[in-house]
Amino acid sequence: MNILYYCDEYPPYRNGGIGSVVKLTAEEFARLGHCVVVAGDYSTSSGQADFKEYSLDNSVHVYRMSKSKHKGDWRLKVLKLANVLFKNGSSWLNYLIAKRKVRIKEQFIAELIDKHAIDIIELADYQDELFHGLNRPTKFRKYTIPTIMRVHGACSFIEYYANGNISDYVLKNDRNHFLRADKICAVSEFSADFAQKYLTNNEIDVVYNPIEASLFRQEPHEPSDNKTILFFGKIVKTKGAFSLIEAFNSIAEYYPDLELRLIGRGDVEQAKSLVAAPYRSRVTFVDFIPKKQIINEIDSSLFCVLPSYFENFSMSALEVQARAKALIYTKRASGVELITDGENGLLADPDNIAELASKIRLLLDNPSVLQSISQKGYEHCRERFSTDVIIPQLESYYRSIIEEHQNI
Asked: Which candidate, 47, 76, 73, 57, places its Cα nearest to that of 7?
């Protein structure tokens, strides 16, 4: 198969969750002998000394649109000049500029489809211009080859869970974006349910994101006296960081050796202010660190707590389980899809501080439960989410869509 992924976050640039998953999936398909192309818009990138418009990265053909792609378009030049004359004060001109950039990108993708004889294309539901640039409803180009919309968490999803409502133009643009797809495939039942409710009437398939087989720990952990609870991710309320700090405050006096370590960026100063004065020396905040170091932090911890308010699908949760560490995760969103409470992990409501504290104490007071959950979480993750399991599912899924399209 010749496969094209559209991704504006492909590592090492502007790396987000979507970028990490696309990179892993693309490289796995390339390893299997498929021709894999990744395209994205990086025209806003700056200060990247090693920026290349094209590279062959682990057998994946990576194309990154640069500023030069936009500079060569005369329509965009005219619109930007007009906007300067209005001193960037025209929302209509800003919309036309964003729309023109979309058209340039769509043509860029079409050219790559022809160049590499692409059989199937996968688009992510979240794309920057849908949220930031297009302040009016817009129609999008539908390609002539089978097109999959991969549901990670659309702009409507993000706005709904951040504000409790969805702007009219954001909702309409997301719906129009979904209309260009022949098939819709979500990363979880939770994300599928949201998309079905707000964005499309079409049937939605579910294929979970994979986690690389090489990440699974091969050797059992050595016995350790470490008493560190680990959180990693964005340190904000919606990720459950504040709830965890409050839970730690409520039990810290009963466990004088217990420490809490939070890794990431976000509302760090606010988070620090929530730590009770007697325990400030036992709570450590660490800035963003590379994934390899995160894995070392997981291995060094006693267990991990990630009580997020909403996650479409958490790669962080799988990373914890792949390293054979016990995880306390969230009851909300896709939490119940990843974990069976009390069996291969523990679930808690981030708004219920007493429940979260109780789950932490359960692991602290019961070494046998901690060990059992660690092992069963590892086995569950390997059996359900490893690339050895998910990539064959995706390969079969792609082939079936191509065959269906050929028979129309």
From this structure: 57
